[in-house]
Structure formats: structure tokens, C-alpha cells
Amino acid sequence: MTASFVAALCLELDKQNPLPLFRQLYAGLREAILTGRLEGGTRLPPTRILAQELHISRNTVVNAFEQLIAEGYLEGKIGAGTYVAHVLPEEILQVKTRISASSISPGKQEQSISRWGEALAGKEIRSVRYGDDVRAFQPGMPAIDQFPYGLWSKLAANVWRAPEPQLLAYGDAQGYRPLRESIASYLKATRGMKCEPEQVIITTGTQQALDLATRVILDPEDTACIEDPGYIGARVALGGAGVKIIPIAVDQDGLDVEALKAHRQNIRLVYVTPSHQYPVGVTMSLGRRLALLEWAARTGAWILEDDYDSEYRYEGRPLAALQGLDQAGCVLYMGTFSKVLLPALRLGYLVAPPALVETFVRGRAAIDRQAPTIEQVILTEFINEGHFARHIRRMKGIYMERQATLVEAARQKLAGLLDIQPAAAGLHVMGWLPTGVDDQRVFRQAQEQGVDAPPLSAYAINAQSRSGLVLGYACVSPQAIRVGVEGLAVALESVHRMPAKRSK
Fold it and tell me: Domain boundary at 31, 64, 86, which?
């Protein structure tokens, strides 16, 4: 069986190639999955047998399998073997044939690309595309209909009426100094951070901050840990850079630090969302925070803290950032204006330890020179004139109303089908499905009803004990929420009538 498996896939490993054998095997299996030669649900040979057939060590095969599992290509089933994933995460992978093989000249076929390019080959970071109407229940999307466009237009007109000449030339790669000052003051006042303007680096959003941190901190083949389930964009940035990813489970107290400590690999970086874990929504406990900081200080690892929607906390005051508790200077902090203002604004920030600021700024300049200066100036005026704080207070009230609408509508229409409880923070809630219900099936049925309800399994690397849906309520009106719940009820009832999937 294995011999035919290896022959059918034309798996060839070159021990003279400087690329490690596990990366060669990883690339070969990944390419077979993306081209359809290995279909979803196909069981792979045991690691021991495949290692014997390829004349390599079993650890080499295990490392390749682990990386493919971490990136969502394979699924490990306890006691049942390793299988090709049925559904690849939509936010990461979308295989398209853009150019037919016949249109590529032989010379072009022989040209090589970088290892980074190879790691991304066959993957596409797909932008979220919306039609004329934003649909329920798209997560991560603020209420763009509530943005103060008139006020922003006036500020923009004032800036453009007589712009200072230096604002129209190349700007500081680190970002507009007055904006960095405003951000530093805001973070110290609201997030309990130890932060000076010199530490703030303006980015074009969280994804660029992730990319920048990955390039500066990590080398290909280094090991990083991410939350499981967790933000897919982090998996994209790390996996695309050739970093080995280790998923760490999340429970009611956040990232399981004891599970993190149990790994013997030299872990260089840990990505976390401690204030409001994405997508489950839990908050990392103080004990876990201190344990994570102690571990990072002792091992020399870096912590990448993503504080993507900390402004929207509905119970008590916003929690202090992990960075504010850091005594060893091992936390890199990321924030964004995409969730509190507009995704299209494309402005975020990274707060680096003082010793790394210059390196990060040089890296920032190398990637795309600078963020748009005029938008930074307008945002600075928006913050300094008090509009930013007022906007957040107003939006908190709107989001609380929309969340309450969703919870109440679910209580009336989805009882027994989906369990939705109020969330203390953020722009989405988790909808937990009954035991045995496939969230991928529900997702597909909901789409047929005009409802977006991303499955929790798409955010996870390892199989989860519960299945669920990630439901964003911020971007739609109360009436649209009620209509969306009606469509979700139809989808859930349809799934309950379906026959159970047969195990292979």
C-alpha cells in the first residue's frame, strides 16, 4: 500500500538538497493535497511505514505531519490515524488555477522562487468581500454605518485645505510623531501600559504588525506557539514564513500555560489574545498571565500580544494589557483602528521594547516605507479633539444593544439548536452547538439562507471537544440580526434532519 502511495504521488526526497528532509516531504504532501491528488478524507500511511519506504527517520515524517496538521492540511484522529482534511480553512486557503500549464513557457517552469514564496504557494490570503449589504453574522466587522463620516470629512478638509509641505513628502517610517504621542498617552491611560512615543510604530493594521514581528524575531524552522482555536491571520503569517507552529489549547482561563511549558522544543514566540481571546472570547486569568510572563522571561521567548478589540468591554473597566505587567521586556503589543473605526482606514500600531525599536523601524521601512501620512494626521486630530473617546462610548452602547438583541432572538428561536450566552466584551459571541452536530454543515446551510456563521473548527488546528459558530453582531442592525436568526434557525433545523455523517 505504501509503495503505491509513494509512487502515485511521486514523492522524492533529495538528501543532497540543503532544504531539510521534513520540509521536502511537507512540500510534496502539501502540493498533492492542493492539486487534488490527495483528496479530503484520504488516510495516510502510518509514520513508521512511510519512513521505512522513504528510507528516512520516523521523526522526519512526524515533523512533516505535525506541520501539515498545524496548517490545517491534515487531521490527526486519536487511534484512527492521520487523514487529509475535508475542509481547509477558507480564510487561509483558496486554491485557484490562474494560468493554464500550457500558457507557461518551459523556461518559466524551471525558475525557482524563495522558500517564503514556496511556503505560500497554493495559498491565498483571501480578503473578506462584502456586497452592498453587510450580512449577519460576519465577525470582526464594526458598524461601518455608524461611523461619523461628516466629522471625519471636515477634519480631512481642514488638513487638505493648506497641508504643510512636509506632509506631502516621504514621512517617518516609524509613523507620524503626533499620532504616536497620542497613542502612547491613550495606552498608558486606558490599558495600563508602560509605553512611550518612541516605542510606537505605526503599521497598516494587525496583519502587517504580525508580518513585521515574524520577520524581525523569527527565522525559518524556528518554533512558535499559537492559541488553538485562534486567529487564522497569525497562522498565515507564521506558516508563510516557514515557522514551525505548535497549537496550544485554550480553556476558560485562556491559553493553557502548563501545556505550553510541557513542550521541549526551543519556542521562540507565543502569540496570544489575552484580553478577549479570538474566537472563543474568554479572558486570560491573572494567574495565567503571570505564569506566561515568568516562562517567557526564563526561556528568552517573546510574547506577541494582540489587543484587537479591548476598547469594547461591557462589564467593568478595560483590563490592563499583558505588556503592562511585563518586567523583562519580552512583550510585543499590537493594536488596530480597524475594529474601533473602519477596516478601510488601514492603520494600526505595534509597541516594541526599547532595545528593538530601531530594528523594527528599519524593517518597517523595508516592507512598504510608511503608512499614509495624511490619514495619520486626520486620525491624530480625531483623537486629540476628543472625538475618538466619544465615538467609543457611543459605539459601546450600540454594540450592547445589538448583542442583547441577538441573545434574546436566539433564546426565542434557537432554543435547543444553538446556545448563545452574553459576552462581556468584543464584537462577537460564540454559539455552541449540541454534541455531535457538525459546524461545517451548519455553516454551509446557513450560507444558503444568506447568513454568514463561520464554524469554530475553521479556526482550530486540533479537534475541539465542542463545535460552534462565531457570530458577529456589531456590523448589522437589530432588525437584520432578527432576520439573520430566522435564517440560522432554518439552517440548524435542516442540519438536524440530515443523516449523520459516516466515519471513514
Answer: 86
Using CB atoms within 10 A of its CB, is residue 436 exposed (0-12), middle (13-18) or buried (19+)?
exposed
What's 266-313 look like in SS3? CEEEEEECCCCCCCCCCCCCHHHHHHHHHHHHHHCCEEEEECCCCCCE
User: Would residue 106 count as lying in a domain?
Assistant: no
Asked, for residue 96, whether it belongs to a domain, the answer is no
How far apart CA 71 and CA 68 sit, in angstroms, is 5
User: Is the same domain home to 71 and 218?
Assistant: no
pLDDT at 325 over 90: yes
| Cβ pair 33, 81 in contact under 8 A | no
The model's pTM is 0.76
Residue 482 and residue 406 in contact, taking contact as beta carbons nearer than 8 Å: no
* Residue at which a domain ends, from 67, 86, 105: 86
Helix 357-368 and helix 206-217, axial crossing angle in degrees, nearest 10 = 120
The predicted-structure confidence for 441-478, as pLDDT tens digits, reads as follows 999 999 999 999 999 999 999 989 999 999 999 999 99
Q: What is the DSSP string of 463-483?
A: PPSS-EEEEE-TTS-HHHHHH
Cα separation, 354 vs 394, in Å, equals 35
Sheet holding 331-336, edge to edge: 200-203, 348-351, 331-336, 302-306, 267-272, 223-228, 244-251, 254-255
In this structure, are 398 and 350 located in the same domain? Answer: no
Report pLDDT digits (tens) over 28-67: 898 888 888 888 888 888 888 888 888 899 999 988 888 8
- What range defines the domain where residue 408 resides? 389-497
Q: Which residues contact 187 (CB under 8 A, 6 or more apart)?
A: 193, 195, 321, 333, 335, 351
